[in-house]
Write a structure and sequence with these properties.
By secondary structure, the protein is α/β, with parallel strands linked by helices. It has two domains: 3-68; 79-286, Rossmann fold (3-Layer(aba) Sandwich), CATH 3.40.50. It has helices at residues 5-16, 24-36, 40-45, 53-67, 72-76, 97-108, 127-135, 148-160, 174-177, 199-202, 207-210, 226-235, 254-263; strands spanning 3-4, 50-51, 78-81, 84-87, 117-121, 140-145, 167-171, 187-192, 239-248, 267-273, 279-286. The strands form three sheets. Strands 7-6-5-8-9-11-10 form a seven-stranded mixed beta sheet, with helices on both faces. Strands 1-2 form a two-stranded antiparallel ribbon. Helix 1 crosses helix 2 (24-36) and helix 2 packs antiparallel against helix 4. The radius of gyration is 21 Å and the shape is elongated. The protein starts with a strand and ends with a strand. The model has no long low-confidence stretch (mean pLDDT 94).
Length: 287
């Protein structure tokens, strides 16, 4: 049976309506865009165009994966972040708009021609490190992750976004990073979007997150603060005099993370909200 673009989208929306996904229409459109290698405008203005049978078969296979709960970004293998393209797979957390608040806050503190050394802890797809390097051409960045699979994704993203020469990749567990009193490298800025969801809450997350995104990139321990305690307490060993740390937080973690910064001697502690009005980034200086 010959299927047109309009028919394919209409059938998909009807078939998957029971999922109750508010983004369903957008998602099925993006899946078809991916298969046809066309943008949304093309699909909207060419509803009567027929789809080749082999391409329609690919589309149906992707719809089956979507119906099972696999995130759209993993199915198509990409996600945009800070207006840049990023490869993603199940070895890395899907970059989210919330994290753009962290990147924007750091960029706002860096002069266009500044030559600074930055550490990104738990780089995952590399979205933070790569975005910083892309928008500030004189930065050098160390992108660290415990996962070799995640680092492979980040390295490819750095190549694709033409910043690989200014990013060093380090496979390292953050909890063993600063075992000695003195850090082997010092940085002007340390940034991180660490795992911050409590172990209890992780089990209640939407299936798209719980079943597919890496558990180690989500769970921050019993109270969600394990990584903050370690990074804030020990990161000051690696910050230069007057260095700055900026961390993404969960919407309800401002008081706890600000307290950790204060307890460990940081100054100029500040919390920034995201575009939804939620507390999202806490930062502080090491004098």
């Amino acid at each position: 049976m010959v299927m047109t673009i309009g028919q394919a989208l209409q059938n998909s929306n009807k078939k998957l309506a029971a999922l109750g996904n508010v983004n369903l229409n957008f998602d099925v459109t993006m899946l078809l865009c991916h298969v046809l290698k066309k943008d949304r405008l093309f699909l909207l203005t060419n509803q009567a165009q027929e789809i080749q049978s082999e391409l329609y078969a690919q589309y149906l296979e992707m719809l089956e994966r979507y119906a099972l709960g696999q995130p759209l970004q993993y199915i198509i293998g990409s996600q945009e972040f800070m207006s840049l393209p990023f490869i993603v797979n199940e070895n890395v957390l899907i970059p989210r708009q919330d994290t753009e608040t962290l990147v924007e806050q750091v960029l706002a503190r860096i002069a266009p021609d500044a030559k600074l050394h930055i550490l990104d802890i738990g780089t995952g797809s590399g979205c933070i490190a790569i975005s910083l390097a892309h928008y500030r051409k004189n930065l050098s960045v160390v992108a660290m992750d415990i996962s070799s699979e995640a680092l492979a994704v980040a390295k490819q993203n750095a190549i694709n976004n033409q910043v690989a020469r200014r990013i060093s990749f380090l496979q390292q567990d953050v909890f063993t990073l600063w075992q000695d009193d003195k850090a082997t490298q010092t940085f002007d800025i340390i940034v991180s979007n660490p795992p911050y969801i409590t172990a209890q809450v992780v089990e209640t997350l939407d299936k798209k997150v719980r079943a597919y995104e890496p558990y180690g990139a989500l769970c921050g321990g019993k109270d969600g603060l394990d990584y903050y305690r370690h990074i804030i307490q020990n990161g000051k060993k690696a910050l230069k005099q007057g260095g700055w740390m900026a961390l993404e937080i969960g919407y309800d973690q401002r008081e706890a993370v600000e307290r950790l910064f204060r307890d460990h001697g940081y100054g100029n502690i500040e919390t920034i909200k995201d575009y939804a009005g939620n507390d999202r980034v806490v930062s502080g200086n090491w004098a």
